[in-house]
Amino acid sequence: MYDVWQILRSGHWPTLVGAWLHLTVSFMVWLLIGALSLSMGRALNLAETDLGVLVALPLLGGAVLRVWGGWSCDWFGAKKTAVMILIGEWAVLLWGWLADPSLAGLWGIALALGLGGASFAVALPLAGQAYPPSSQGLVLGLAASGNIGTVLVFFFAPRWAEMLGWQQVFGVMAGIVTATLVLFVLLVRDGRLGDRHRRDVEWWHHAAGLIRERSAYWLCFLYAITFGGFVGLCSLLPVLLHETYQLDAVAAGSVAALCGLVGSVIRPLGGYVADRQGGAQTLYVVFPVLIGSVVAVTSPSQTMAMAMMIVTIGAMGFGNGVVFQMVAEWFPRQIGLASGLIGAVGGLGGFLFPLGVEGLKSLTGSYDLGLWFFAGLGVCAWGTVFIGLRTGGFTRSS
Predict the structure, then answer these.
(1) How far apart are the C-alpha atoms of 213 and 195, rounded to whole Å?
(2) pLDDT (tens digit, 9 = 90+) per residue, 24-49?
(3) Are 382 and 282 in contact (CB under 8 A)?
(4) In this structure, are residues 131 and 16 in contact, taking their beta carbons and an 8 Å threshold?
(5) pLDDT tens profile 129-148
(6) CA angle 364-369-374, nearest 5°?
(7) Which pLDDT tens digit goes with each residue over 366-384?
(8) Burial of 364 (0-12, 13-18, 19+ CB in 10 A)
(9) How far is the C-alpha of 328 from the C-alpha of 142, rounded, in Å?
(10) CB 263 within 8 A of CB 150
(11) Which DSSP state fits 217?
């Protein structure tokens, strides 16, 4: 514990707090549709397919906007980009609060809520710039534990919807984003210093270097499984729990919140362990746990299935921390760009997860095949880690 406290004191801790707060609230915005899915579907009489698309669209928007976020972070500075994201979130939430809730309009709102997903490409570099390289695993894990916003939105949003109506929840979130913007500006300092022209030349050099790194594409794949699985499964859980076990919106949201809590609080531990044991060595142990628990989610026992949901999302959260420790270690000069690119692929994985699982469910009448398919992808990811450890084939070439 003393070691952790010393690490926190080695940098600018208010910036770390601000980065964490930015990511926490942005995650609430990003997954708001998933948390409100049952309330919205019931109020608007949405078909199962329409609801699945609505839940997935913010994840697609987040995947695309993370690339922009990473680029803007390196080009304009992390703090300026973070402020722009919060202002954009506020505008989209007002749109959702005041607009006519037609299906086409909801799809536009859902896609635009992907701005919340772009926070990841900004909050992590912002926190990383405030601390020395030796502390990156723990610091980035702490900042990334802001995905605890998943817990908050899945716990509170269904309850707010029961009391106020689902559309009023957008107004509540707009108020939360406003308060966050004020605190963020006061807490955070921008570590972007030096000559602008030199920084821009270096950015192009770093971008070209990142494109040539095959290890970056490997990390993209791993993050698509760990983070894509985390955010995709959390988004889908309320619908899955309702259709499989007939849980109401509040109960399903509470289970999803518990799963998200485990996956969020364990993420810093993943980065901390990877700092000391090595990222690939840690993932070699994490993936078998993830694979086995995903398969066990299909158990006919409701108690076993829910317990394995918690283990699954916990393993995903741990793996998220490990992967981003590797990103910070391998690409320190390209952290914004790398965070945007790798985070975008993770968001794309999250977008495909609910679409794929819901699509297979509509064909088979069960979520089992979709979960088994995801477990198969996990086996492939574990295989690449095994090969990389045996051959050294996934280390940086420069």
Answers:
(1) 27
(2) 999 999 989 988 988 888 888 887 77
(3) no
(4) yes
(5) 777 766 666 677 777 778 78
(6) 145
(7) 888 999 999 999 999 999 8
(8) exposed
(9) 14
(10) yes
(11) H
